[in-house]
Amino acid sequence: MADAPHVHMRHVRMAFGGRVVFGDLSCAFERGRVSVVLGGSGSGKSTMLKLIAGLVRPVAGDVLVDGEDVTRLGERALGRVRRKLGMMFQGGALLDSLSVFDNLAFPLHEHRALAEPAIGEAVHRRLRDVGLEGVDALLPGQLSGGMTKRVALARALMMDPVILLCDEPFSGLDPISQRRVEDLLLRVNREQQITMIVVSHHIPSTVRMADHVVLLLPERAVEGSPEALLESEDAHVRAFMREEDVTTDAALEVHP
Amino acid sequence: MITAVARLGGLVVAGLEDMGRLAVFTGRVAAALVLPPARLRAFVDEVYKLGVLSLVIIGVSGFAVGMVLGLQGYNTLVRFGATNSLGAVVGLSLIRELGPVLTALLATGRAGSATAAEIGTMVATEQLDGLRMMAVDPVHLVVMPRAAAMVVVMPLLTALFVVMGLAGGYVVGVHLMGVDAGAYMGSLENAVDFRDDVLGCGLKAVVFGVLVGLVATFRGYTSAPTSAGVSTATTTTVVVASVSILIVDYFITALWGV
Hints:
The complex is a heterodimer of chains A (256) and B (258).
Chain A: E1 7-16, E2 19-29, E3 34-39, H1 45-53, E4 60-65, E5 68-69, H2 75-82, E6 85-88, H3 100-111, H4 116-129, H5 145-157, E7 163-167, H6 175-192, E8 195-199, H7 203-209, E9 212-217, E10 220-224, H8 226-230, H9 235-243, H10 248-253
Parallel strand pairs in A: 3-8, 3-9, 6-7, 7-8
Antiparallel strand pairs in A: 1-2, 1-4, 4-5, 9-10
Helix pairs in contact in A: 3-4, 4-5
Chain B: H1 2-34, H2 40-51, H3 55-80, H4 86-124, H5 127-133, H6 138-176, H7 181-191, H8 194-221, H9 227-256
Helix pairs in contact in B: 1-6, 2-6, 3-4, 3-6, 4-6, 4-7, 4-8, 4-9, 6-8, 8-9
């Protein structure tokens, strides 16, 4: 079981109305690795995360998360699976009527019988982890884009997930904030051995942080290491990389 | 011709599907009412937002409607020399019909639309998905307290509307038109039956509360995750709830004689 992929999508067909997003998608995400899902706009990157989280259901196929097929579970059983997952949404998805502190404390109030001091300590530890202090009382609307992403990451980690899903964690950030979020994700992966699935279209970050890349192309997906994709003979893969204006040498240079 | 029939059929099927989804949604809200944890804090917050913040508009509207009823009633009754029955006319009109219906329509515009917009915005900004990812049922946390609060505040707002309306009718009838104060209050007391009129008014208010609460939360919950979706949810809440209130009012009146 430990050798089985942590998340496994098998022959997934997904459509919204008449628009087919995936015809027959299969890919696997190994335990403890950082996987980055690349693809153009509308290629289904965010939909892939929602399928893994059980937020949408496919037309056909299986999505195994830690051995359980989330496509066949009811809401209550999905809740059990989701306690193993953390999700950092593209826009943060923070509860806008609650302060930063209450947003982070919320999952603990819901699922853990902890005393207030213990909750406060856990919240402040997570805020320190993401490099934020003194923001407890702020509302989500008062945060900058970078701060929102980091609070969203802190909330996603509050329940100590074994799988972390990140939807475009670098979008809308300046280069310094991008690098800070990237370092943060890598540190979390290294220290807590969390399986990470990161949706992005940012090639330099992908090359720096990914152990494994899934590139969503029209009607198929290509998997491999970032180096393998950058050196691929496949014309479509090369075209995607060129559109991002990144050469193999330049990208590999910054790889740690 | 065939296209028109197909289009009509499509509309009917879409309408039936919508009603089916509303029925399932209603079942989920009812189940959430009895499932732990009790969302008392959220419920009290919603009672404040939907009820307390609506007090002024309901109070002022009730007083204004009572004044109009007083004036119109006086002008009619004076032709028959029956101005002493003004209290009965104002009271019965308000308690049996205008109080619950107008309160429900005002609550739909003020609180129902706000509820639909708030939940729709939470859909558009993925806050409800965020709750699901924290293994929290959005129907339990977001929908149920709002729907329950609407059911509780509607009879209270209706009572306020009626009392303010009676006061408005009294001011016009007694102080402006010179109707005897004792006659106004006496005819009101004699005409209004607690069981038929007051409890009937309460029944209508509760039914309208359920209706507005469910329509508003359902429209918000099922809205498209876009700003246009939020706008559509708000508009359809007002339209569907308002028309439903008037139709249901007829059936309650016809079936229970209230």
